[in-house]
Amino acid sequence: MINRVQPQAPPTLVLTKLEIRLLDRLARTPPHLAAIASASCYLTKLAQLGGYLARARDPLPGNQVI
Fold it and tell me: Which residues lie closer than 8 Å to 31 by C-beta, 6 or more apart?
C-alpha cells in the first residue's frame, strides 16, 4: 500500500539493495534514472514482471496485483 500512500518514498523502504539492482537490470533502467527512482517506480516494475500492463487508465499496483 505504500505505493498509493507515499509514491515518492525511497525504494529502500520496500526492497533490499539487491532487489533494486535486479529490477534495474531486468527492466534495463539507465543508471541516471535509477538514482532518482522512487518506491512507486520499483513497485510498478515488479508488478510488470507478473503481467501488470501499466496502462494510463490502470490504477497503481497494490497488494492484490503484487
Answer: none
Tens of pLDDT, residue by residue over 19-58, are: 999 998 888 777 767 777 888 888 888 888 888 888 889 8
Residue 34 DSSP SS3: helix
Residue type for position 43: L
Q: End-to-end distance of the chain based on CA atoms, in angstroms?
A: 10
Give the other-Cβ count within 10 Å of 17's Cβ: 9
List the chain domain ranges.
2-49
CB distance 24 to 6 below 8 Å: no
